[in-house]
Write a structure and sequence with these properties.
This protein is an all-alpha fold. The protein contains 16 helices and no strands. The model has no long low-confidence stretch (mean pLDDT 88).
Length: 454
Amino acid sequence: MNLRGHAESKLTQWADQRELRRTVLRLALPIVGSDLLQRGVNVVDALLVGRLGAAELAAVGLSQLLLMFIMALVYGLGVGSTVMVAFHTGATDERRRAWAARTSLLIGVVASLGLGGAGILLSRSAATFMGASGRLLDLTLEYLHITWYLFAAYVFLHLASAIFQGVGDTRTPLRAMVGVNVLHVIVAVPLVFGLVGFPRLGVVGAALASGISEGVGAAWLLWQARRRGFFGQARGFWSVQEFWRILRVGLPAMGERLITHGMQLVFARIVIGFGVAAYAAHQVGINIESLSFLPGLGFAKAATALVGQRLGARDHSGARRCAWQANLVAAGIMTAFGASFVLFPRAWVVLFTSDPGVLGYSVPLLTAIGLLQVPLSFAMVTSGALRGAGETHVVLVAAIVGGWMVRLPFAYVGGVVAKLGMTMVWTTMILDWLVRCAIVSWRFRRLSMGEVRL
């Protein structure tokens, strides 16, 4: 009887793990698709304006680099919205979930006005600081000003997607992003090149197409959310309590993104010091790594939503099991990518360039990127789980320690001062993610789920 009972217990445990894994995959895979399509809008803009000339292409590239910093703030608001909507969804409290969803939209209005206005006022100074002048400066400002005037479209597209993720529906945002990309191409081609009776607007046409398509996608998602009752029927529009909850979770997430982007700029500056070929190789490496990074990010967002829902339902052990399953699946996918990077480095790099100088860096670059995949996957997904528990400040600390206290000092001292070269510089990326992985894993193991207060 004991053996039979033990076998039945094991079967039940395996069945539970299998079901959790399916739940994680159902939630994560559409997020991966949405993120890819979100980047697709920027890629299409670059591809189209690249046919107009180098100055137009450079203007769009510089504009998107500057926009990344502001969008980091919107990302933090999205994290806060997802966590609170997920928590109330797990608690089956539709009234509070509606308060959280409506409050996030109010925050979106304030963010659109504040960030858009600041962008219009500071665009010239920021572009000049980055080295833009003459025609490049004019084109950059044309693209940025249109983007800022239509910035609300991006904000509400992101926040509406965050609300759906919190509810546990990631397929609807994916359908929205498919529509956004199709509409973007349909609108951008005639506006950029002046076809079918439209004026030739160049970079302005690309910016208009992005804003229009994202605005339509946001409107459709908000209509779907209202139709499904996510915003409820209660009187009043927002809740002070939910407002502070969203900010308490979201502000550290904003800080984490800003600190990470700043670190990446300084790191790129160190790489540039080793020459054009080294920097070109580094950029190729970033593009290659994005193929594994986006799946990891998708599972991290899934972990955020699932942990938040389970905590709302007071299923503390379920929250831990969801995080573990998300970690296992993400690690499997990213380890497979990492192995291919280490085993076939030149084959990956040659997809992007045949320049001999760049190819000469392929082995140390792809070896470093391949070896960091395991700590990267666990750091990303465990960070997502901590966000779902409201522990966004821990992820912020991990980013500061790993990026600013480990990667940058070791890269400069080892690579530049000690003259160990780019191999040492790229090795510090592994050290960075090992440290982040250790910090967030330590905190998640010690975290008492029953004491979490969102």
